[in-house]
Amino acid sequence: MKVKHKDKVAPVEAVKGILRRTMCYNKDAMLCHFDMKKGSIIELHSHPAAQIGYVIRGRVEFWYETKESKHVVITGDSYLIPGTVVHGVKVIEDSDVIEVFSPARKEYENE
User: Fold this and answer.
1) What local confidence, expressed as pLDDT, does residue 67 receive?
2) 20 in a domain, yes or no?
3) Residue-wise pLDDT tens digits, 57-76
4) Of 18, 27, 73, 77, which shows the fewest CB atoms inside 10 Å?
5) How far apart are CA 45 and CA 109, in angstroms?
6) Chain centroid, CA 25 distance in Å
7) Residue 111: predicted pLDDT
8) Residue 26: which residues within 8 A CB-CB, separation 6 or more?
9) SS3 (DSSP) at 107
10) Ranges of the chain with pLDDT below 50
11) Ramachandran class of 110: left when φ > 0, alpha when ψ lies in -120 to 50, beta otherwise
12) How many CB atoms are closer than 10 A to CB 64?
């Protein structure tokens, strides 16, 4: 069994205003915590992994395929983005989000 505490994982700021902490993972799945600052943007992109998320606090706007196709998620919402679907994010208010990627994203590994 593997256990990691969020406060003991060094954050990575791959996008300005968004800190990612990669928590536990194996080749099949990866759990990440994102601390997202209001106004931050993750441009449209895609990846092979399915992305399942839960908004601990805050409000985030997701874009699907284009920035005109959007959906806002708020505290308490969960969501699923299938692998290879083009998507992006605009952070509407400071937010904490937990996401699971399956399979794990090699570029997010921290060990």
Assistant:
1) 87
2) no
3) 999 999 999 889 999 999 99
4) 27
5) 19
6) 14
7) 65
8) 104
9) helix
10) none
11) alpha
12) 15
